[in-house]
Amino acid sequence: MMADLSAALLLFSLLMYLALDGTDLGTGMLFYCFDQPQQRQWMAHTLLPVWDANETWLVLLAGGMLALFPPLYSLLLHTLMLPLMLFLLALFLRALALAYRAQVHTTFQRWLDRLMIVSSLLAAFLPGWISGVILVSRPPVGIVPDLSLTPLLCGVGLVAIDIVMGCCWLCWRLGEPLVERARTLCTLWWTLALACFVAVLLLEPALWQQSWQRWPGKILLSVLPLLWLAQLVALWREAMVTLLMLTLLTIGVVVGALACGLYPWLLPGQLAIQQQAASPVTQGFVLTGMVILLPLTLLYHSWSFWVFKRHPH
What we know:
Blueprint: H1 2-29, H2 37-47, H3 51-54, H4 56-68, H5 70-79, H6 81-100, H7 106-136, H8 149-174, H9 176-203, H10 206-212, H11 215-236, H12 240-262, E1 265-267, E2 270-272, H13 273-276, H14 280-307
Antiparallel strand pairs: 1-2
Helix pairs in contact: 1-4, 1-7, 1-8, 1-12, 1-14, 4-5, 4-14, 6-7, 7-8, 8-9, 8-12, 10-11, 10-12, 11-12
């Protein structure tokens, strides 16, 4: 029971990171499509108050994994060291570009904007690619990074869904100055995201089929087509804030359905939750800390969004 709760808390941290930092990464990649200095300045101002708080969930995820499931942490770090290091480097470079672009000369600012685009693209693609590697792994081979189609589609799909959230974020936070272009881009990237999702579903159906065997997974998978349809309706009606909320809900349902298919494993067919968990004393200590930290983090996020709710321009 305690091991299941530990796994659920890590899953919640992962979900919060994907949901909250997706808008940040999407907006960073959209710097490529909005090249006017004033537009980029407004876009950066929407991110500055929240980007570091969003990545708090990534810290909680990594720290919690190390304490609660050390074999999983060790295996992922050993087999996926290069992409994980590239991912952390991309987050660092992205933070550097965002924090210092307003303090430098115009010429250097253009280079920081290019760095922002590339680092945001890498930080969005690599977690999707890593999740695809985990999905296609089969015992006893273990997790072997490769360039097969499913991981690439997972990476491209996460990039696409992050850009969709970035477009919705810009429409919500900046309104009229960027809204027309953002809606057009949103339509294109939403279509690509849906195509990647369907392709991965067809290429790797095993986890989805296992999820369908359990009643929580059956409910989530039944809701999923309706959510994609609701997103299409919101896109057609140009209800961008509604589309953002529906996209966040879709991410939660997809992650939840995959978790139902994966249970009771931490990785498909290897590292069972009950067998690989840390000692009950360690779990009890970490879970107590999480019970204190998670509400505080959620409260801080809510307060930040409330304080900076007005349009930055």
